[in-house]
Batch of 4 targets.
Target 1
Amino acid sequence: MADANWYVVHTYSGYENKVKANIEKTIENRHLEEEILEVRVPLQDVVEVKNGAKKTVQKKMFPGYVLINMVMNDDTWYVVRNTRGVTGFVGPGSKPVPLSEAEMKPLGIKTENVSVDFEEGDTIAVVAGVWKDTVGMVQRMDYNKQTATINVELFGRETPVEISFAEIRKMS
């Protein structure tokens, strides 16, 4: 079986969630779960100020676009391309171009599986970044974001801090 890649689909503005729902229903009806793996409408938290009150709301990162993790073949291309609200794939002509690693990283989508030699409850040392030379215990791990949350002492209090896997090492 071919490898799945992330593709960008252009939709009518405001139809992103409808397109996502339609594609997911088609996946279920046509049993394409093995070929179309995930459909996403990337969101970001934005702080809005209305009538002097701050409110955090989720907004679409890319209005008019939907991300799809799929194996590209004639069937999947046809299903997605002919979904109501879809105007086409992003790419030259009618040839969809998959997103690269560098393009996916800011979206919080990780493709490579990272293995680390520490886990929750282990004592680690921070070897880079703002918290360099700090020692703490791993409280929580997020493999999607590739971060660990540790407690550090700040102003005489234990404070949780999120640190990249790349910046920490297990204490021996």
Note: DSSP finds three helices and eleven strands in the chain.
Target 2
Amino acid sequence: MTAVPGTPAVAPDALRRAPASAAGAPPHRRVQRKVREALLGYALVLPSLVVFGVFVFYPFAKNFWLGLYRTPPFPGLPREYAGLDQYRDVLGSDEFWNSFWVTVRFVLLTVPAGIVLGLALAVLAHQRLRGIAIYRTIFSSTVATSVAVASVIFFTLLNPQIGLFTYWLGREGGLSPLDDPDTALYAVSVTTIWQNLGLAFILMSAGLQAVPDELLEAARVDGAGVWRRFRRVTLPLLGPTLLFAIVVGSILAFQAFGQIDLLTEGGPEDRTNVLVYAIYTAVFKEGNEGKGAILAIALFVITLVLTLVQLRFLERRVTYER
């Protein structure tokens, strides 16, 4: 082989070995490497799959199976196969639709009001004032309050004999708002809003802290007032936080149970009988596992559809730019 002048000579053996080294490892070793990576990935995911399988997928399949059988009125008797007829009977009953609309009203009463109040408190606490940390602590304190504690507090405040709220409402010595069919759902909603206010405040405060001060300062220099800066700059940039708060708040409202059980037990006249409490009543009070399983599946489907609708239509108005 004749070398080109000005270039180093390359041995023939080096030329023959160059393509093999450039191509990398042999094919069988690449296949083995991919198999090892896949096995490692499955091994890392396996614990989560086991947890989801035991606590999510299996209960859901078991609920669907239970819904196919009618529970006998007396214990010890075998279940009677009813197929999808029981689904039609339960989901078409007036009891189910009453619980559904009560739940929808409960969500509409608690979620928007809770987000608006949380945002208002977050805006107030976002000011750079001396001692503002004290107010931030007070506003967020309800996040550490359990449903039981919040329910006991409002049960006392709404007591017709010693309750402060009943005194303000002119109901002292009379009927408690929790016992009035026209006001029971509103009373439970106020309890829920207060109990979840700390979470809403923390979420909104985190969103406000992520808004760049440069944009607000630029808007102020351009002559925008306080309300216009909030509406044109702050509120659009809070879109991701508001979307998260709406979705999570709606899911929590659909799963509300503790305050209903402690304050009204679904009454009076089923005016506060939300879907979760209807499931509890069917399983633990009526002993009808099939009915409770169908209601649980219906609640899952409703929550899933609501979440997908919220993500599809509300996310269009959300901007992630800073």
Note: The first strand starts at residue 69 and ends at 70.
Target 3
Amino acid sequence: MEAKWYVVHTYSGYEKKVKANIDKTIENRHLEDQILEVRVPMLDVVEEKNGVRRQVEKKMFPGYVLVNMVMNDDTWFIVRNTRGVTGFVGPGSKPIPLTDDEIRGLGIKIVNFEVNFGVGDTVAVIGGVWKDTVGVIQSMNDAKQTLIINVDLFGRETPVEINYSEVKKM
């Protein structure tokens, strides 16, 4: 089944807490392949207070969180019963996924990379925090477009997650 973006209604002011709670549940229950991403869309705004201008981040949709997930009974139950969530956007208890046009309007880019590497291949990291690091691919998540490689950190093999776009095959 394919992951789609859904809108979750939250108590106002609880958006970041709901995101953190869902992220923690994903990690604890190993649902990384079913609930791919949780976002609180933010907007950079210039605010003037007492004659001083400064740039601040404001929530684009106060009271709402976006979740990219494969909808099934388990994922619905987990998200719906997260503290601070009042429900999914949609009629009754049936969530309606966002359309591709709505997703583009939110500035969420849907990019699928063609990859020429697989588990066991050695790759060089060409971007991000781990730039100029070499590692062997341990696992790949096509839905999230990420892979796990082992890198040498303080003399120990440490698994790190990297986007497909940040590596090239050696």
Note: Residues 15-29 form the longest helix (15 residues).
Target 4
Amino acid sequence: MMIDDMVTVATPGDSATDERLVFYISDGTGITAETIGHSLLTQFAGLRVNTQRFSFVDTPDKAREALRQIKAACGERGVRPIIISSVVEEAVTAVLEQSGALILDVFGPFIGRLEAELGQQRARHVGHAHGMVDFAAYEARINATNYALTHDDGGNVNYNEADLILVGVSRSGKTPTCLYLALHYGVRAANYPLTDDDLENMDLPRRLVPFRRKLYGLTIDPERLRQIRQERKPDSRYATIAQCRKEVAAAESLFKAERIPVLSTTHTSIEEIASKVMSALGIQRQLF
């Protein structure tokens, strides 16, 4: 059983007594439970949650150990925990139901209706949701990830095989978006960081000109950019608000002059950025 660290999602003005404990439990990686659970929890404005993921809980004994740790985490709070589960094994689910927690089965609302519609019972394959079933799709993800890594921050400028190229100032969200696109969609995404020289010339860098149709710009609020850069290079010219404002303004002017589609990453999740970029560039890929 793998246990991920507890993560707090807070909103200003909340107190610790107002938080709810939420546990994602899965017999696989837990990615499905966590993704769906996060989407559900964000529907409740101002909610403060502490989350923890228990992965590979595929036996009753592992489920009992998870419950022991959940009970210890809850302590004397007096508020029952919430368990968001993607467990398919009935014996494991039966143990979880003894917890007294609110249990949300992410598959439960759909399985019965699908079985009725398809005329067959589901096969209870533990961890099947993230199994390596389609080797071609798996290879596409690996190749796309390798491509993103070797074409990060202008390190390799052979963009002939790129599906798209993200352009923006340093720390505007290019690299994590490229990796997300590769891992989840098998998209070959490169990124190009706009340097001071690029921004002073106010012309599209020559190496990008042949690939104009693949370009998508990312921008960011200068204050947020300053915070990110300050964490990486504290008290440097690179992290000053003046430098951040200068670079962002120049980049946005370049995008406008070159008619490059652009999106602000300031308050946008990686998932949303990826979806909007693919839609804007007409890239149709299914989620792996």
Note: Confidence is low (pLDDT under 50) at residues 8-17.
